[in-house]
Design brief:
By secondary structure, the protein is of the alpha/beta class. Helix content is about 30%, strand content about 20%. Helix 1 (about 15-25) packs across helix 6 (about 130-140). About 45% of the residues are buried. Bound molecules: threonylcarbamoyladenylate and magnesium ion (MG). Threonylcarbamoyladenylate (TXA) binds near residues 39, 116, 121 and 228.
Length: about 350
């Protein structure tokens, strides 16, 4: 039922994408790659097609979708903003797009409340991925797409994750290999008087602040309260119990994990660690396995591997997946945002143990 199309991520050709383009035009569902994670797409202006996305993902109807575009002129159909806001939107979008950033602004009448979960604002993203760009361009319509996972599960960063979750439930899955960034786009709400960061992502806050000095940053604590509708739901969670160890001090964190490992009573544990710390733990055995997420000095590597490692570990059905934490700076802030949301338990912060 589901057709899987292997498409070269750098040089997609029109002919091989034809069936995906026809599917979008006919109101079907197409999973496509972006530079962040895979998206589950439908024609943003086809309300019936959009409804199918919610059904397939089992997504609550009040959790709005992002609309993906492939050129700036598509904005005209999507937004309805006054002159001042428009200038700001143009300023920001021309600096950050195409790229891993989503902007929330007032929606036009053409955008259905189905897409926006009943809100008067719409989230828009112009991805930087040749396959996504060509698919949107040739389908001749913006594409509404959430991440292509079942609701509440980690986002797919490889077509094989999508095939596990959605095979038989969608029309087409485009397989272009692994996503480059591995975590979802940064979301900025520019509909409010002062622009607000809703979700940290691949573009660091430090860089955003240069562009938008007034950007309101919720502190880590407030990220636990929902800022946008989707954020009140559980996120990124594997089936296995994920235990996150906070890292205010690397040595202390490793010591805490080692202590925890000594008390696990022969349960099967998978530890997601890093190149710098992997040798500080016991050797792999029948009930213990270590996987490195990459180097602490290359956080983009950690982000790239994060969901893939969690999903892969989860397939082995361990009693626990233990994950080392990161300092909440730069990309580390976004990585920890995802880990905090996916954790069943957080160890190392007094109020959360
Ligand atoms: O990188 C990404 O953003 C990926 C790729 C596929 O583009 N997409 C993605 O979509 O992560 P999704 O649906 O998993 O996350 C979108 C988030 C949700 O938390 C949703 O609540 C929020 O964006 N959102 C969408 N529209 C919004 C709006 N009008 N106001 C506030 N938040 C909104
Ligand atoms: Mg998602």
């Amino acid at each position: 039922m589901t057709k899987i199309l292997k498409i070269d991520p750098l040089n997609p050709d029109k002919r091989s994408l034809r069936i995906a383009i026809e599917t979008i035009k006919n109101g079907g569902l197409v999973v496509f790659p972006t530079e962040t994670v895979y998206g589950l797409g439908a024609d943003a202006f086809n309300v019936e097609a959009v409804s199918k996305i919610f059904k397939v993902k089992n997504r609550p109807m009040d959790n709005p979708l992002i609309i993906h575009i492939s050129n700036f002129s598509q904005l005209e159909d999507l937004v309805d903003v006054d002159f001042k806001k428009r200038k700001f939107l143009d300023f920001i979008s021309h600096r950050l797009w195409p790229g891993p950033v989503t902007l929330v602004t007032k929606k036009s009448e053409r955008v259905s409340y189905k897409v926006t979960g009943g809100l008067d604002t719409v989230a828009i993203r112009y991805p930087a991925h040749p396959v996504a760009n060509l698919l949107i361009e040739l389908s001749n319509t913006p594409i509404a797409a959430p991440s292509a996972n079942l609701s509440g599960k980690p986002s797919p960063t490889d077509a094989k994750h999508v095939i596990n979750d959605l095979n038989g439930l969608v029309d087409i899955i485009i397989d272009s290999g692994r996503s480059i960034f591995g975590i979802e786009s940064t979301i900025i709400d520019i509909s409010t008087e002062v622009p607000r960061l809703l979700r940290p992502g691949p573009i660091s806050i430090e860089r955003l602040k240069v562009l938008i000095p007034t950007l309101e940053l919720p502190n880590i604590q407030s990220f636990r309260k929902p800022l946008s509708p989707g954020m009140k739901y559980r996120h990124y969670s594997p089936e296995s119990c994920l235990v996150l160890f906070i890292c205010e001090d690397e040595e202390k964190m490793v010591e805490r994990i080692r202590r925890h490992l000594r008390k696990t009573n022969n349960k099967y544990i998978i530890l997601l660690t890093t190149d710098e710390t992997i040798n500080l733990y016991p050797k792999d055995s029948n009930n213990f396995k270590k996987i490195s997420l990459g180097s602490r000095r290359k956080l983009y590597e950690i982000a790239h591997n994060l969901f893939d490692s969690i999903i892969t570990a989860d397939l082995e059905k361990p009693a626990e997946i233990i994950v080392e934490g990161f300092k909440e700076m730069g990309l580390g802030f976004s990585i920890m945002n995802r880990l905090r949301k996916s954790a069943h338990r957080i160890v190392g912060e007094e109020d959360e143990v």
